[in-house]
Amino acid sequence: MNQTVLKTVSPTLALFYRSKGYKAPGGLRYPGGIVYYPRQPDHKDPEYTPSKLFRVERIRPTKNNPWWLKTILKELKIDEANRVTIVKNIPEVNARLWKIKHLIKVTPITFPYGEPTEADINYTILKENGQCVVTKTLEPQASQIDALEKFETDKSKMDSTTIKKDSRYKWNIAFGGGF
């Protein structure tokens, strides 16, 4: 009798004990085991391209933290000497960043004017908000150069020495007709 009861009861008990809570039907499954339950049934994710690089800034000191967190900070080169570094957006690095998330601030790097080439490396600036801007040297246009040469060689132009002489002359003969 005990055998027959166990055979009928054990599968139901196994299902009961193995369940880890109620799971609602539906939902959108994302990589990493995340399930999202949207409010509207016709929900579609917006198009988004993740950034290739992250700007990582250490915002908390490493003091009073375990040695394995300090090791991760040293590997990423954001220990006590350096506060900011740039890392790739890859799963291995993201796993490390997740472990030290309470010590850092992560900002995705964007390129509003296009990605810099190898020749532009000396002219790039990385701002605190994550924008990487290329500032090349500006060259004047040919019309601007011609206008400057025309202005410099103009005979009716008064340069500083002429203005000084004229002012001195007017000062010396104040009542003689200079004004």
UniProtKB/TrEMBL annotation:
Q: Where in the cell is it found?
A: Mitochondrion
| Recorded GO MF terms | structural constituent of ribosome
GO biological process annotations for this chain's record?
translation
**Domain Large ribosomal subunit protein uL30-like ferredoxin-like fold as annotated: residue spans:** 54-104
Q: Which UniProt keywords apply?
A: Mitochondrion, Ribonucleoprotein, Ribosomal protein, Transit peptide
| Segments passing through the bilayer | none
Cellular component terms (Gene Ontology) = large ribosomal subunit; mitochondrial inner membrane
Q: Domain of life, per the record? A: Eukaryota
Indicate where this protein is primarily found.
Answer: mitochondrion
| One Pfam family linked to the record | Ribosomal_L30
Q: Does the keyword rRNA processing apply?
A: no
Q: Does the keyword Secreted apply?
A: no
What InterPro entries does its record include?
Answer: Ribosomal_uL30_bac-type, Ribosomal_uL30_ferredoxin-like
What family is it from? Answer: Belongs to the universal ribosomal protein uL30 family.
Q: What is this protein called?
A: Large ribosomal subunit protein uL30m
